[in-house]
Amino acid sequence: MIRVLICLLILCLGNSSFAQETYKITYHYFRDGAMIKQDPIVVFATRGKSIVTRESQVSGQPRYPLEVSSYDYTKDLVYRISYLSDSKMISTVDSNTLKKYKYEDEGQGKEILKHKTKKAVTSVNSNKIELLYTDELKINAAPNDLGQTMGLVLEYRRNGNSGLVAASIEKLKSWPKDLPQINESNLLDELSYRDVLWKSKFIQIPIFQDAQICFQPGIKSDSILRFAEGTVIMKKVKVPSVENGAQAFIQLIEKSNGDAYDRTGSVFLISEDQKTTFLDGMKNGMETLPAYIDSAGTKYPGMVRTDGFSPVLELMRFFTPFGVSHFNDRLKLKGKTWQDSVIYRQDVSEFLSVMAGKEIYIGTYIGNYDKGGHKVSLELTIHPGGSNYADGMKILPLFNTTNVMEMGGQTYPTMFAFEKGLELKFNVPNDIKGAKLRYITTGHGGWGNGDEFVPKPNRIFLDGTLKTQFTPWRLDCGSYRLYNPVSGNFDDGLSSSDLSRSNWCPGTITNPVFIELGDLAAGEHTIRIQIPQGPKEGESSSFWNVSGALVYQ
């Protein structure tokens, strides 16, 4: 009997010792059969718990933000800990993750690191996930949330060609003392935690928040600079220096604050590459700026580049819808729920060379004649990355006929009524390889026969040679009906916002096109934009808002 008790005690002690065994598992990324050089995943696991972190955190060289997940299998809880900097950490608890995934058993898998495995599959957001796991070490662990309750996951494969595989399993003497500890009193709710973590990954530069753009002669300024009777607002912001490969986005949220109509809008940047800037004209009067003169002698101040002056750089051209938000209760239609705002978001990475590490003026214009006008929120975000289409790109403003100072001395651009169209000369100081024209174009004016509703070709000439010809036209305007609650409805069942237009729709962005100009030798060049603008109809004139900037490496 005593011998039996001793044997049982030895057996229990042996199991207890085994239960406390701790392992360090290192996982490497792979794609299409090849390993990827990326910060490896490191997992520490023992009976009842595991922690998923990164090699950079273990080695004392973390790359922020860094998220660590701690799994408590006895309580079915997952703690998330994110290091945002050397001195800031946030955390939360998730009670759902370990229960939400369902797996199908597919029998035996291949051997990994001398351990036999079993195969299980699941689906996450339409992606097929294959897991190879072992129960030989009597622990639960995985490089991410999947398979955490099945055993030790040794390979995670996504859609058959990419994933994570265990590169080493190291047995430790004890649980490392310097691993993250949970402070239950400092836990955020999961939504707040995710929001803080997401925003820590990029630079946010708020510019306007619910700012009013309206027509109010004599409107007084607050912290925002206001021009043209309130139809233009502007602010000076500081943009930090960024590493190569960063991407920049501008985001505008717009709501009607009383204006029911579709209006031209523009987010622009004051170019400061020459002695005289557009801001000088905004402050001192547009008549103080150099003017383009068309064949009829009409003057257009501040629209083209000259020796000593640069027009504004247009970051984004947008169009307000018919009364979104303010007029949502005016018309109720079965099966239609009006949107409460419009969000316009666009990649503007090509402008980083004139923004990063500088204090810049960014403005927003909405042409309108309403005292309430519109409310806008604007922010610039910059995101670190490895590469993007605009990496190393430089930009030079050439022309912008969008009359953002409409209420301050800029007339509508009707110079395209003449064969010459818009023509200007510019200089480049050095030879340029592979130059492009960043070009935005929209046609306006008239009614049924106006250029807003009649397709017109745009022709771009450089030094007398036709570089491209295309007809800007939008056929998808009906897609944005739910942003236009008070768009006019016609007897044929269409709404005004449905109608196709010259490269714009109510409630949308007009994207720039990049036109190949080729190699440019140092010195003077001539660019010409020719559009067959329609004739005047009574008091209504057609016109074209075009902006162009030279982009090059």
List keywords for this structure.
single chain, 553 residues, mainly beta, outer membrane lipoprotein receptor (LolB), chain A, Jelly Rolls, 2 domains, eleven-stranded antiparallel sheet, six-stranded antiparallel sheet, 5 helices, elongated
How helix-rich are the residues, as a percent range?
Answer: under 10%
Q: Report strand order across the widest sheet.
A: 6-5-4-3-2-1-11-10-9-8-7
* Cα shape: elongated
Low-pLDDT segments: 1-19
The percentage of residues in β strands lies in 35-45%
The figure for the number of domains is 2
Give the overall pLDDT as a whole number.
93
Largest β sheet strand count, sense and barrel closure? 11 strands, antiparallel
- In total, how many beta strands? 31
> What distance lies between the first and last C-alpha atoms, to the nearest angstrom?
88 Å
CATH class of the largest domain: Mainly Beta
Number of helices: 5
By secondary-structure content and strand pairing, the structural class works out as mainly beta
Give the second-level CATH assignment, the architecture of the largest domain: Sandwich
Q: What oligomeric state best describes the polypeptide chains here?
A: single chain
Any idea of the CATH topology of the largest domain? Jelly Rolls
Q: What would you report as the Rg, rounded to the nearest angstrom?
A: 31 Å
Outline:
This protein has 553 residues and is mainly beta. Helices cover 8% and strands 41% of the residues.
